[in-house]
Amino acid sequence: MSSTKQTQTIAAYDNAPFFEKAFKYAVKHNVIDAARVDEIVNDAATGAVQIAEYFGESAHLRKNLEISMKRMVSLVSLYLEDTTGNELDKAAMLLKEKPFRALSRGGSQMLKVLFSLPEDGYFGSTRLDSERDFLKKSLVKGMPVTKYRQTVKDCEQFKKELDFASWIIKKTGTPISKLNEFHASAEHVIRTYFLTLAYGTKKVGGNKSGLPDEAGLFEIFTSMRKEWGFLGDITCSTKFMDDIPAEFLDYANNILATIKTEDLPKIVNPSVPLQSVFSDLKDRKYFYLHDHFNEMSKFDKMLAVDWFALTGGTEDDALLLTLFLCAASGLEQKTSLKVSEAKKAVLSIREHGILQSDVLKLIEKAPHDEIEQLRSLWSDFIEEAQPFLLDHSDEQLKEVMVYLEDHCNIQKAKK
Questions:
Q1: How far, in Å, CA of 287 to CA of 214, rounded?
Q2: 22, 169, 174, 250: which is deepest, by most CB within 10 A?
Q3: Within a domain: 355
């Protein structure tokens, strides 16, 4: 045999299903005789019919039986490789001792175990596949034992996280419906619970065992940064760890350690605005109890206190555009202007230009959910208003005032 042909033969053998390797090994080393080979062939033929019927496919079509046989070989290969640790001599002995269909059922049971585990670590997740569809999908190309073991390992970790988080929410009295509703990450729930008990309870008080809402979580971040500023360190209480069930303890210690090494340096870093740090970490690593759908949260109102002081909470476009005009011209920011003040704003813009960055900074003070809409309102306004605001030929400001009186809140003098 030439070197090229030998290499191709070895490659084909390496890529063959593990059952095929074990079968050839068993025949070559006389582990199974001709009579046992016939038993395996007959058992496989019967099993192929049963598999076709299980998947709702006609066993009278040759193509369906061929597909079923491939699925059966995949199941047997998975079971043999996993059970024997990829050792051909042990696999050959199993082919001698166990019925072929029993080996196939062993592989099927392995996949059913995988199906029973959660696919991710989020509350409220539902499987898209039925057990039958899952088996069919897993057997399209066969599942290598290495992939199977890694997937089981990952899914078992998801289960541990969900079980631990479920223990936590039962302890805190948080309704599980809330977590399902918001598709909460189990890891985020655990992390938030640990942050609250380890770093938050003595600093902010309140319910020591409950999950915080958004404002409460931000208060913990704030208190940690203040403590760091005063002491150059953060006090940490780990007494709550005494209550954690033994099966979760290693995972719990790891979470607490990553909070200390990964999150704390960001939280206490004075060179980065706390709101920026909070916005990043709350989305990627923490979970908070939401107030209501489609309503502005207490937290947004708390952060936007300056905005509400300026606007009074108005949603009137004319009042908001007046406020933006003031910012764009460098005038005192308010939602109502006298005619003389509006003219002063125009003259300032013609002299110094439109202070676009000041308007955008002002908008950043608004509640998070409203910012994009306010930017759009300003962008549409200034695009149309700019020719009037910068038209130096309109020396008497007649045209620009007509425009502003139509779009902004300009109070005309009473006659």
A1: 8
A2: 22
A3: yes
Q: Say whether both 290 and 174 belong to one domain.
A: yes
Contacts of 122 (CB under 8 A, 6+ apart): 183, 184, 185, 186
My answer on whether 104 and 7 are in the same domain is yes
Question: What are 210-242's pLDDT values in tens digits?
Answer: 678 888 888 899 999 998 988 888 888 888 899
Query: Considering its fold, how many domains does the chain have in total?
Result: 3
Q: 3-class SS at 349?
A: helix
By the 10 Å C-beta count (0-12 exposed, 13-18 middle, 19+ buried), 24 is classed as middle
CA–CA distances in Å: residue 288 to residues 38, 168, 210, 404: 63, 14, 10, 44
- Domain of 398 in residue numbering reads as 304-411
- pLDDT at residue 114, rounded to an integer: 94
Regarding whether 316 and 270 lie in a shared domain, the answer is no
- Tell me, yes or no, whether 393 and 375 share the same domain: yes
Torsion angle of alpha carbons 16, 19, 23, 24, nearest 10°? 10
pLDDT tens-digit series, residues 159-201: 999 999 999 988 888 888 878 888 889 999 999 999 998 888 6
- Say how far apart CA 180 and CA 176 lie, in whole Å: 6
- The model's pLDDT over 19-53, given as tens digits with 9 standing for 90+, comes to 999 999 999 999 999 999 999 999 888 888 988 88
